[in-house]
């Protein structure tokens, strides 16, 4: 196979930041993907519909500045769930027509999560009831933050401590278990009752935790949830390539300045927006399941969210392409995942101008 033409995909988990950082990275996504679920963990976080709509305008302006036609990319906005999010705010978000989900960050779980939830069922019942009633998904960063729990076990324990009680209390609530990283996570989503799905990143399909330490500590492979053992990577590949509609593409692409990654206390996050579809193609081809890539990337996500599938296309060509060592990022640079390595596929990205 020398090329693949597929329905244009969507990214169901994306970090864009704001300001100069947003302007530097949004084009990489908008040229490949038709839509993207935009994470709300800015400083300060996007906690209201008004803030989400303002952020949406920033994104659309940046898309135009990147030379991509406005109709070619749609940001799907989210709210950041806090202990104080009201049911009325959920209803306002739904009525806006531009907010598509609410994101749960357990307090302290990842980048800019200080304002996150400390007790989901203790503080957020009214918001969860409103989400269930209006059919808006709850997107969960599935890790407990108890400092006594090993970082490699936090996802599995989250299932027992949070997901199971949540599903028992709100059985009809749409839940996306974001960026799953473990066999336990994949099997939970596969077998759960009710409307449950999961996103899977390219790095968790391609690498296990050895990648963090090959030749030394490699901060550009550090993300949260952290890379896990090979047995977990294999389970994620099976989930993503197995054809189940519960699993779909979410890059969790997260740009950080090079200096903040290569730091004594480096930031968590892998930048994959530039070459996301090539990375996924490599993962699917490694297990001889390229025929399953289109459904994972283009069908399962919109079907779960209740949105129409895209009608335009994206083509991947078999062409060895070297990942750049670094990319411009405002007045500094960022390092993409697998910098300096060669990928077997390249996406023919959208170059239409605004």
What are the SSEs and their pairings?
Elements: E1 3-7, E2 11-14, H1 19-30, E3 35-38, H2 49-65, E4 74-80, H3 87-96, E5 99-104, H4 120-123, H5 125-134, E6 138-141, H6 154-169, E7 175-178, H7 183-191, E8 196-200, H8 202-206, H9 230-241, E9 247-249, H10 258-261, H11 276-286, H12 293-305, E10 313-322, E11 327-329, E12 332-334, E13 342-348
Parallel strand pairs: 2-3, 3-4, 4-5, 5-6, 6-7, 7-8, 8-9
Antiparallel strand pairs: 1-10, 10-13, 11-12
Helix pairs in contact: 1-2, 3-5, 7-9
Question: How does the overall form come out from the CA principal axes?
Answer: globular
Distance between the termini: 33 Å
- Biggest sheet strand order reads 2-3-4-5-6-7-8-9
CATH hierarchy class name: Alpha Beta
Low-confidence stretches: none
What is the tally of beta strands? 13
- What order do the SSEs take from the amino end to the carboxyl end, as H and E? EEHEHEHEHHEHEHEHHEHHHEEEE
CATH superfamily: Metal-dependent hydrolases
Helix segment tally:
12
Rg, nearest Å:
19 Å
Kindly state the mean pLDDT as a whole number? 95
- Major beta-sheet overview: 8 strands, parallel
The figure for the number of domains is: 1
Helix content: 25-40%
* Global structural class: alpha/beta
CATH-defined topology: TIM Barrel
Instruction: Please name the CATH architecture.
Output: Alpha-Beta Barrel
Strand content: 15-25%
């Amino acid at each position: 196979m020398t090329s693949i033409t597929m329905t244009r995909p969507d990214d169901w988990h994306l970090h864009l930041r704001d300001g100069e950082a947003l302007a530097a990275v949004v084009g990489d996504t908008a040229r490949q993907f038709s839509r993207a679920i935009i994470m709300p963990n800015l400083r300060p976080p996007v906690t209201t519909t008004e803030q989400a709509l303002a952020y949406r305008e920033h994104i659309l302006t940046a898309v135009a500045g990147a030379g991509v036609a406005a109709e070619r990319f749609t940001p799907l906005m989210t709210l950041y769930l806090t202990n104080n999010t009201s049911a009325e705010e959920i209803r306002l978000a739904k009525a806006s027509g531009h907010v598509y989900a609410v994101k749960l960050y357990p307090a302290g779980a990842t980048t800019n999560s200080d304002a996150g939830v400390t007790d989901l069922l203790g503080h957020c019942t009214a918001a969860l009831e409103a989400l269930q009633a209006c059919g808006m998904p709850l997107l969960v960063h599935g890790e407990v933050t108890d400092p006594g729990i090993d970082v490699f076990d936090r996802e599995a324990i989250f299932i027992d401590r949070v997901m199971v009680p949540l599903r028992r209390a709100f059985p009809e609530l749409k839940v996306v278990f974001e960026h799953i990283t473990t066999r336990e996570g994949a099997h939970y989503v596969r077998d759960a009752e009710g409307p449950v799905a999961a996103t899977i990143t390219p790095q968790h399909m391609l690498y296990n935790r050895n990648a963090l330490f090959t030749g030394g500590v490699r901060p550009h492979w550090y993300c949260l949830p952290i890379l896990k053992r090979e047995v977990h990577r294999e389970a994620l590949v099976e989930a993503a390539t197995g054809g189940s509609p519960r699993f779909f593409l979410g890059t969790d692409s997260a740009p950080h300045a090079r200096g903040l990654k290569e730091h004594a206390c480096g930031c968590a996050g892998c930048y994959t927006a530039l070459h996301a579809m090539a990375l996924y193609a490599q993962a699917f081809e490694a297990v001889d399941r390229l025929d399953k890539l289109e459904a994972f990337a283009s069908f399962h996500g919109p079907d779960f969210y209740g949105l129409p599938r895209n009608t335009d296309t994206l083509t991947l060509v078999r062409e060895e392409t070297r990942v750049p060592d670094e990319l411009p990022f405002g007045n500094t640079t960022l390092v993409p995942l697998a910098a300096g390595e060669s990928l077997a596929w390249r996406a023919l990205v959208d170059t239409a101008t605004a």
